[in-house]
Amino acid sequence: MHQGLSESIPSWSHNAEACPLDHARIRRRVEQRGGRRPGGATRTDATRIALHNQIWLSKKAHGFHLDLSAGVVRSAVLDSGRSLWGTHAEIGVGIGGWATLFAGGDFLDRDARVMLGMRAHGIGAGPLIALALAGMAIGGAL
């Protein structure tokens, strides 16, 4: 890759379960259930479709690059029971095709979400996924 060269590709992602930070609402649910905690977080599944642009900062084959994404998101907004359309933006820093650390946001009607994450090549991500699953199994989440 050459310095300053950019490449645009379409991308999509999907996530499930987001825990809202509305402590008063959670407290009301606990009181309604006789002191028992709610069974889980409010589901706010989100599907994103974005144009993903990589700007290469180095001439090396596995050099640094910036990732910029802009697109749309469709998701339920907390307890609305309806799916709404909103906007999605993301910025990341990566090394070749191996890994990218990113920060992104979804902006919907009366709801904004911030996410931090990592995208990785399968060879690099395999051990991280195994560690996460092992931690979940040890902690009783599986």
Molecular structure report:
The model has no long low-confidence stretch (mean pLDDT 75). The chain is of the alpha+beta class and 142 residues long. The protein is flat. It starts with 5 loop residues before the first strand and ends with a helix. The protein has a six-stranded antiparallel sheet with strand order 1-2-3-4-5-6. The chain has one domain (6-139). The chain contains two helices and six strands; from the N terminus they run βαβββββα. A hairpin with a 3-residue loop joins β4 and β5 (99-108).
Using brief descriptors, characterize the structure shown:
142 residues, six-stranded antiparallel sheet, alpha+beta, 20% helix, 47% strand, flat, 6 strands
How are the SSEs ordered, and which strands pair?
Elements: E1 6-15, H1 23-32, E2 46-56, E3 64-76, E4 83-95, E5 99-108, E6 111-120, H2 122-139
Antiparallel strand pairs: 1-2, 2-3, 3-4, 4-5, 5-6
Percent in strands: over 45%
As laid out across the biggest beta sheet, the strand order is 1-2-3-4-5-6
* Percentage of residues assigned to helices: 10-25%
Overall mean pLDDT: 75
Shape: flat
- Could you say which structural class the secondary elements and strand pairing correspond to? alpha+beta
Please outline what is shown here.
By secondary structure, the chain is of the alpha+beta class.
